[in-house]
Amino acid sequence: QVQVVESGGGSVQAGDSLRLSCAASGRTLMMAVLGWFRQAPGKEREFVAGIKWNSGNTAYGDSVKGRFTVSRDDAQNTLILQMNSLKPEDTAVYYCAVDLFKADDGIETTEGAYNYWGQGTQVTVSS
Fold it and tell me: How many CB atoms lie within 10 A of CB 103?
């Protein structure tokens, strides 16, 4: 089993920055992909960003490219999402997810590919 715990959500103004963290524990992440998804009220869950743990390869959803940066802290087994230039449409519950074994360097953007999920953290951006 993998335990996944997000932190760092909150309420900010448009244009502000916010940093989310995700602590993953219980299994090695060496072959894993860790991703961030978000779900706004009345909308489907969407892929935000992901990183292949061993290579550092990253991928981003179109709506956040150029504003969000995903990174990892190997020593702490922690995934980071730095969110800059936040917009009201970024308001959502943000979820961290783990695809524990990904043989190639690709990053899946569909939620079904991910085995373990955190409880989510709320991000609210007001105009």
Answer: 6
